[in-house]
Every structure is written in structure tokens, then in C-alpha cells.
Design goal:
heterodimer; A: mainly alpha; MetI-like fold; globular; B: 298 residues; mainly alpha; 12 helices; 72% helix; disordered N terminus
């Protein structure tokens, strides 16, 4: 009996290793081949070189698209925080008519396929006379990022111990003082976490951007174009950079989660 | 304890109005607009605003070449189901193993689970292009190993490559909720089950599986809806003839085909289908979560 169970555990371990390999190996391939000396991604690699990183740095369009992406991500994240955090407070503190409907509508752009939000906005902007452009992309990103910020902050507020706010009020603090000195510091990890997540999602977004960008290229749209036009090994280099950047962001956000738990 | 103890009702409007107005303008109105587009006529340059059911009829009737556009939707649903089944088959054992068999490095393991969620979609989709391509790594490795003497073109630009790529992309979305569901199972429930004489397999079947079910349903829903609405992976990995999936048809109507009303009608069909699926799986999740609570109380 004991014997067969160990056999099952071993199979489970092997299977799990296989799945992890399936998830991570393709990423590793991209990283390794970004140092390829050859312009064809073939096995085995013929040599090691940094030339694709040099090519990446000299690719003006690529650098410009990176700047565009960072700008869109910063503005959209900022707007989503400005709109989403008050929304989360309203949901947490008040009951109002249509609350359930509001909660559902907020989540739509997260739940529905991105292409639907993309084409819906494209048509609407056309009717409004807004041309595909950077502002259109920012509006698109902000709209789905509000859902991220709102749900994350709302979840944190629900777990917040109300007694400390009441204690603050009892001790004579005004509503603003209580909010500023008690509520805000207690939800700060959720605020930073949702901002980081929003920033990352905006940097990576394609389906909505695809329909709203016009000639304004963001980084993933630029990479998308490059992958379509044959294989340019520079894509391996820029992909590796993007991968490392997301690793850094994720380590920060996991640390935050741990701090909050502690 | 009233919730309004700290904040007076007076703050509701200043807090709620800005996001509510934004979402009304940039979410509700666009979707309403999509809905009305689907009943208008396509014109040579712009949409002709006259009511018609033609766009929907076109989707469900055969073209002159004999193919029915609606069949693409059926194919897409099938493909999304295949992707969903594979993501669950890959995720569940891994989530189970990480939760119950690994006792050290919990932090690292949690990172392993969430990292792929944060890694760029386009990077992950593209990685399969360089692996499966005609001159790609798989082919050149096969030649190097002597398995074949010429590159095989069976890997890329097929339904299989689209499925492989999508399973890779969406597995983390399934792994995460299953991992979380398993993590939340109180370990003393398993001990109780053992004390009451259940074998490991019985405990697994009657304690672990039912409690993990809401996580499985949530993850499967993610995988299904996301892969059903994907038009990027199919056109990157499915090759030039990428009209294999429904979202690609929508993209074409808003792009080269320039028939926005028809594209909108297909969009609305997808929307209704997705909302129906979410309603069903949402109910199923709640039902099984309710079972959880009953189980916990007992």
C-alpha cells in the first residue's frame, strides 16, 4: 500500500516538473536566444553575442514605442487610481440604489474578451469624432484599469478593522484626519499593489490598444508588428528586457503582500 | 454596527460620481453603440443608420461558397473547450503537488505560480513561434539529432500550434485559482477524514476535490472566455489563414473588410454567449462554495 502511494507521488512530482517546464522553458528559450550570434533561431546555437541588444538600442521605432508605452501606463494608472480608489470607498462605505449593477458594469472589461471592449470603443469614438490616437488609448486603458484598482482596494477595505477608524473618531479626529492618518496607511499596500499591477497590465495590453492606436505604437503593438514581419532576433532581446522588468515588478508586489500578512 | 459610522452619507456622491460618469461614458455608451451598430446597414464609406436584421441573418446563413460564418463560432467554442480541458489537466496536479507535497520554499513556490501571470502575453505567444517555426528550434533540434533530414512544416501554422500556444498562455490563469482553493482547505479536515478511516484516495475524492471545485470552475471559466476571445495567438501561430477563430472574423470586419455593422453583430453574439457562460459558471461556483460552508459547519 505504502509502496504504491510513493509511486503515485513520484508520478505526480514528475508530471508537475513537466508542467513547470512547459510554462517556463519557452521563456527560457527566448532569453537564451537573445544572446544568439546567428540571425536564425536554430538549435544548437552557433555562438554568443550581444549584437541583438545593440540592434535593439539602435531601433528608433522600438525605443519610441517603449517611451509611448511608459507614458500611457503612467497616465492610465494615475487616472485609474484617481477614479478607482474613491469608487472602492463608495462601494465599501455606502449602500445605494444600483450598487449591484455598478459592481457588475465595473467588472465587464476584465471579464469580456478585450476585442469586444476594443471594437465597442472604436465605434463609439468614431461617433464622437475622436480619432484613433494616444488619448483614445489612454481612455481605453484607464477604463479597464479602474476595474483592477477598484476590486483590489475594495477587497482590502472589506478586511480593514473598522474599530480603529471609530477609535480615531472617538479621540476627536476629523473625518479627513481619520482618512489621512488611519485609513490610507492601512490600505497602502493594496494601493501600491494595484498601481503596480495596473502599470504592468497597461504596458502589456494589446486587444484594446489594437483598435484605438492609429499610428501611435505602444511597445507590445510594435513587438506584435515585428513578429508578424518575419523573425527579427531583436524581438528576443526586447522580450528578455520586458521579462526582466516584469520579474522585478512581481518581486516588489509579492514582498508587499508578505509585509501585509506579517 | 452601521457602516456609515465614520463617513457621513454626504461623501457618497463626490466619491461615486467620478468613476460612475467615466464608466457610463467610456464603457456603457460604447457597448450600447456596439449594440445599435449591429442593427445598422454597412455603407460604402460610413455606416447607414437604418434598421436591419441583415447582419445577424448573414452570420447564420450560408454564403455563396457554401460556408456558414456561424460555424466558425462552433469551431472556436470547440477549440476553446479543448484548451480549457488541457489547462485544467495540467494545472490541477501541479497545484495539488505544490500545496500538499512540497513543504519548504513556500514563498518561492507562490512566486512560481504567479510569475507567468505577469509575463507579457506577446512574449509568451511569440516564444512558440521561434520554437515551432519551420526553421525553429524544434525542427533544427530534430535535424541535429538525426530524427529527420529536412525541416518539417507540420508544427507551426496549424490548429495544434494555436492550441499549444493558448494552453501555455492560459494555464497560469487556471493554476492560480486552483492553487488558492487548495491552499484554503483546512488541513484538519483532511486529518479528520483520515481519523474517520478514509483512505487517501477517499479523502482526495470526498474532501479535496469538492473543496477545490469552485477554484477549478473559476479557472476553467477564465481559460474558456479568454481563449474564445483571442485573435492574436491564432493569427501569430495559426498562420496567414487565421480566420479559424471568431475573434479574427470580428477583427477583419473592423479592419480590412470594413463592415462594422456585421462585425458588431458578431461581437454581440459573442457577448451574449460569454455573459451566459459567466452566469452559469458563477452559479455553479456559488453552489459549490455553499456546499463548502455546509461541509465546514458539519
Amino acid at each position: 500500500m505504502r509502496q504504491t502511494w510513493n509511486g503515485i507521488t513520484l508520478c505526480l512530482a514528475l508530471f508537475s516538473a513537466g508542467v513547470l517546464a512547459f510554462i517556463y522553458l519557452p521563456l527560457l528559450v527566448v532569453v537564451v536566444y537573445s544572446f544568439n550570434a546567428d540571425s536564425v533561431n536554430s538549435f544548437p546555437m552557433t555562438g554568443v553575442s550581444l549584437k541583438w541588444y545593440r540592434a535593439m538600442m539602435q531601433n528608433q521605432q522600438l525605443i519610441a514605442s517603449l517611451k509611448n508605452s511608459v507614458m500611457v501606463a503612467l497616465i492610465s494608472t494615475g487616472l485609474a487610481m484617481l477614479l478607482g480608489v474613491p469608487g472602492a470607498l463608495a462601494l465599501d462605505r455606502y449602500d445605494f440604489a444600483g450598487k449591484k449593477i455598478f459592481e457588475r458594469i465595473v467588472l465587464l472589461p476584465l471579464i469580456l474578451p478585450g476585442i469586444l471592449t476594443g471594437v465597442a470603443m472604436l465605434g463609439f469614438f468614431q461617433e464622437m469624432g475622436i480619432k484613433p490616437s494616444m488619448p483614445a488609448v489612454v481612455i481605453g486603458h484607464t477604463t479597464f484599469l479602474i476595474a483592477i484598482v477598484l476590486t483590489q482596494v475594495y477587497a482590502r477595505l472589506k478586511r480593514l478593522d473598522r474599530a480603529i477608524e471609530e477609535a480615531s473618531a472617538d479621540l476627536g479626529a476629523s473625518r479627513w484626519q481619520t482618512f489621512w492618518h488611519i485609513t490610507l496607511p492601512n490600505i497602502s499596500t493594496a494601493l501600491i499593489g494595484s498601481a503596480l499591477l495596473s502599470f504592468t497590465l497597461s504596458l502589456d495590453e494589446i486587444p484594446v490598444t489594437f483598435f484605438l492606436n492609429g499610428v501611435f505604437n505602444t511597445l507590445p503593438i510594435q513587438i506584435w508588428g515585428m513578429t508578424r514581419n518575419g523573425l527579427t532576433p531583436e524581438v528576443n532581446a526586447i522580450s528578455t528586457v520586458v521579462f526582466l522588468a516584469s520579474l522585478i515588478l512581481i518581486v516588489i508586489s509579492t514582498r508587499l503582500r508578505e509585509e501585509e500578512k506579517a | 454596527m452601521k457602516k456609515t459610522a465614520v463617513h457621513k452619507k454626504g461623501m457618497l456622491l463626490p466619491l461615486l460620481l467620478p468613476p460612475a460618469i467615466w464608466l457610463f461614458l467610456f464603457l456603457f455608451l460604447p457597448y450600447l453603440n456596439l449594440f445599435s451598430y449591429s442593427f445598422w446597414k454597412p455603407g460604402p464609406f460610413d455606416v447607414v443608420k437604418e434598421f436591419t436584421l441583415h447582419n445577424y441573418a448573414k452570420f447564420f446563413t450560408a454564403t455563396s461558397s457554401g460556408s456558414v460564418p456561424y460555424h466558425v463560432l462552433i469551431d472556436t467554442v470547440e477549440l476553446a473547450l479543448v484548451v480549457t480541458v488541457f489547462t485544467v489537466i495540467l494545472s490541477f496536479p501541479l497545484a495539488y503537488y505544490l500545496n500538499f507535497k512540497v513543504t519548504r520554499f513556500k514563498q518561492t513556490i507562490y512566486m512560481l505560480v504567479i510569475i507567468p501571470l505577469w509575463v507579457s502575453y506577446i512574449v509568451r505567444a511569440y516564444s512558440w513561434k521561434i520554437i515551432l517555426g519551420t526553421n525553429g528550434i524544434l525542427n533544427s533540434a530534430f535535424i541535429w539529432l538525426g530524427v529527420t533530414d529536412h525541416p518539417l512544416d507540420i508544427f507551426l501554422y496549424s490548429k495544434v500550434s494555436v492550441i499549444i500556444g493558448m494552453v501555455h498562455i492560459y494555464t497560469p490563469f487556471v493554476l492560480m485559482p486552483i492553487y488558492t482553493a487548495l491552499e484554503q482547505i483546512p488541513r484538519n479536515l483532511l486529518e479528520a477524514s483520515k481519523d474517520l478511516g478514509a483512505g487517501r484516495f477517499q479523502s482526495f475524492l470526498h474532501v479535496v476535490v469538492p473543496l477545490a471545485l469552485p477554484g477549478v470552475i473559476a479557472g476553467a471559466t477564465f481559460a474558456f472566455v479568454l481563449s474564445m476571445g483571442d485573435f492574436l495567438a491564432p493569427s501569430l501561430l495559426g498562420g496567414p489563414d487565421s480566420s479559424t477563430m471568431i475573434a479574427n472574423i470580428v477583427q477583419q470586419q473592423f479592419g480590412t473588410s470594413n463592415n462594422w455593422p456585421y462585425g458588431s453583430a458578431i461581437g454581440i453574439v459573442i457577448l451574449v454567449l460569454v455573459l451566459a457562460i459567466l452566469e452559469l459558471t458563477g452559479r455553479a461556483e456559488k453552489r459549490f462554495s455553499a456546499l463548502d460552508t455546509v461541509a465546514m459547519r458539519k
